[in-house]
UniProtKB/TrEMBL annotation:
Keywords: Monooxygenase, Oxidoreductase, Plasmid. It comes from the Bacteria. SUPFAM superfamilies: Dimeric alpha+beta barrel. It comes from Cupriavidus metallidurans (strain ATCC 43123 / DSM 2839 / NBRC 102507 / CH34). This is Antibiotic biosynthesis monooxygenase. The lineage of its organism: Bacteria, Pseudomonadati, Pseudomonadota, Betaproteobacteria, Burkholderiales. The keyword GTP-binding does not apply. PROSITE patterns: ABM. One of its GO terms (molecular function) is monooxygenase activity.
Amino acid sequence: MDEDLFVLVVLYAKAGRESELRDKLRAVVEPSRRDTGNLRYELFVQQDDPRRFVFVEHWDSPGAQEVHHTQTEHIRRFQEEGSDAVERIEVSYRMKRLD
């Protein structure tokens, strides 16, 4: 049986493109929350740096997150149309909770 998966991703926008990236990232939030196996999908922006965006995700299994990331239309669209505004991915962690 798969265990829950937690994901933390920090993206940094290209200079002058933070509003564009914010809009593109916001567009994936609601559809992602409806993806099978999603338990939490939140987007944050750093208060003192509007170029830094943070996703906090919780999935019921690694497989559900994999389908979300590789097979959904909203993520495919972001990869094709929005990822150009990303300067870098600062952090990408796939984690399991230690109880």
